[in-house]
Design goal:
Strand content: under 5%
Structural class: mainly alpha
Shape: rod-shaped
Distance between the termini: 56 Å
Number of domains: 1
């Protein structure tokens, strides 16, 4: 493979990783919003918390390949603390 093709493939792989990260990060934010709404309504948000951290693991797996940042897992206390601040 020529250098040009290798560079193009590498660049395309990076762009695909960034696009996938953006989609996963958006999905993560949506689950966080759901958890926050449920917490504020004093409802059980454990299912949303599981979904947040499933998506977070997908993001972190992608991040291990490079170019995109990792995200922290979210805890029940983090959601409760954020709700109290608002």
């Amino acid at each position: 493979m020529s250098v040009h093709h290798e560079i193009s493939k590498h660049s395309n792989d990076q762009h695909a990783r960034v696009r996938q990260f953006a989609q996963l990060d958006e999905k993560r934010e949506q689950w966080i919003e759901i958890a926050l709404k449920k917490c504020k309504a004093d409802d059980d948000f454990s299912e949303a918390l599981v979904k947040i951290n499933e998506v977070t693991e997908q993001i972190n797996e992608l991040a291990r390949k490079g170019i995109v940042p990792q995200r922290k897992n979210v805890t029940k206390d983090m959601i409760k603390e954020y709700c109290q601040k608002q």
